[in-house]
Write a sequence for this structure.
């Protein structure tokens, strides 16, 4: 190989390695937090290490006067939707749900809320890693 060819290929190899490391390097994890608002309610979603397999979703809802809350994980790119999951109220305005993510990728968590103010839906994106 000529010196010129090496100088041209070396940066490309470094960039490719950086991209692959970013995509596949095991992350330190940690919780994923996202927030979204519907017409009537605001929802903050926390997921401890959103990974393939079992996941625990924690929801903080404002205003806290809600009768029922369910979550439905959907992966629109793949045409997957899991059955709606009921939540358990852990404190006023705080809810917990357990689900299983069968695939890695971008999911949408649809939160259905019913309360004295009426019904609402809030969609929150969630990236699930391997």
């Amino acid at each position: 190989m000529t010196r010129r060819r090496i100088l041209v290929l070396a940066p490309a190899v470094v960039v490719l390695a950086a991209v692959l490391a970013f995509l596949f390097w095991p992350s330190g994890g940690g919780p994923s937090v996202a927030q979204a608002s519907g017409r009537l309610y605001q929802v903050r979603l926390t997921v401890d290490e959103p990974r393939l397999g079992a996941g625990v979703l924690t929801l903080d809802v404002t205003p806290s006067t809600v009768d029922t809350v369910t979550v439905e994980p959907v992966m629109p790119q793949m045409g997957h939707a899991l059955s709606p999951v009921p939540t358990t109220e852990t404190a006023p305005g705080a809810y917990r749900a357990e689900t299983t993510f069968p695939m890695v990728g971008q999911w949408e968590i649809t939160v259905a809320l019913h309360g004295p103010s009426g019904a609402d839906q809030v969609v929150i994106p969630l990236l699930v890693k391997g």
